[in-house]
Amino acid sequence: MSDIKGFCEPRFDAVREALAASLGKDDVGASAAVYVDGEPVVDIWGGYADADRSVSWERDTLTGVNSTTKNMTALCALILADRGRLDLSAPVAAYWPEFAAAGKENVLVRHVLSHTAGLPDLSRLTAVEELYDWESVTADLAAQAPEWEPGTAAGYHALTFGFLVGEIVRRITGRSLGEFFAEEVAGPLGADFHIGLSAEHDHRVAPLIPPLSLTDEYAASAPLGPDGARREHTGAVIQVKDTNSVAWRRAQIPAVNGFGNARSVARVQSVLANRGSVGGVRLLSPQGCEPAWQEVFCGDDRVLRTPMSWAVGFGRFGNTFGWGGWGGSLVVSDPGSRMTVAYVMNQMVDRDQRDDNRGMEIVMAAYGGLH
Fold it and tell me: How far, in Å, CA of 342 to CA of 187, rounded?
């Protein structure tokens, strides 16, 4: 069993045991956190920040959480909606006029947030480096035609989600998604989470480690298409070496390039599970949280090739909501229990090769502490 640091209320000892077991088996370095009623009850970490196991994972170690970032981006939209600055039922073009091109005049903000806008791919993207040019990517999305009638089907918007929501936020506030998040969410909450990372934090980053037997050229696979074959890929294959690059850290890719640890992920997301506030800081009203778990779409997701329930910005799973990232990070919130559980690690697991239950084992262990 690995040495676990941090604190854990005794009733949640099973979470500590689950993280220790994972570090003794699959993980190199990892952190887990649980918030209940807006207060931390578990904040633990252990292992190493590097593949050579020479640098300890510390309290303030950060790592890339890939699509777990989408939870943060969605929260920014819900905050603006709660303030009356964003209407979830309005056309995207009401905020971003150029977006009405190519038959998208009826795409609503809630379509974008629920992966039903019909824009799951960046059709003109040929290289990862092109993701770093915000103006070019958003201009291409504005010109692009939807793959299906918006609102009638869902298809996971793996990369486009962040550009679409981020541009809406930018048009309303004049700030990038990363700036808005830093000033309106992370700052007030004292949360060590960053969408895009500045150089001052580089020394704290634990690089992602590709799955066992694979190299840093391990790529995010294109999901299956309707006929069971791989969807036609745009040509921009994201590899582990990309997510570990300085260019990736400096960019704004709000669907996927967030950096944090379990403590910061759980702290931010516990706002939604705890009726809009955490640690005495209120970010939105109780009513403003509800779209996070109110179903917008239920059915087969055309990209993920699995039945999905999508809320406004989040995957919905029974009475819980949240989302995870490529490689294994995860956050789950339960508004009924006012609990949020997060797991962040550096050792990736290839789901094509084997199941990855590390995050869910942390979540299930946390539920044991509620009884």
Answer: 20
The CA distance from 95 to 273, in Å, is 29
CB of 147 within 8 A of CB of 139? no
Distance CA(163)–CA(325), nearest Å, equals 17
How many Cβ atoms sit within 10 Å of the Cβ of residue 321? 29
Main-chain dihedrals φ then ψ at residue 349, nearest 5 degrees = -120, 135
Consecutive H or E run containing 82: helix 69-82
**161 burial class (0-12, 13-18, 19+ CB within 10 angstroms)?**
buried
Residues 330-369 have pLDDT tens digits of: 999 999 999 999 999 999 998 887 889 999 999 999 999 9
Q: Are 102 and 141 in contact (CB under 8 A)?
A: no
Phi, psi of 286, rounded to the nearest 5 degrees: -55, -40
CA count, 13 A, side-chain hemisphere, 345 = 30
Distance of alpha carbon 186 from alpha carbon 168, whole angstroms: 20
The mean pLDDT of 159-182, rounded to a whole number, is 98
Q: DSSP H helical segments within 174-218, as ranges?
A: 177-181, 187-189
Closest CA to 329 of 264, 273, 270: 264
Strand order in the sheet with 63-64: 63-64, 258-260, 194-195
**Placement of tokens 């045991």 in the chain:** 17
What tokens appear for 180 in the block? 């808005």
Please identify every residue annotated as catalytic: 67
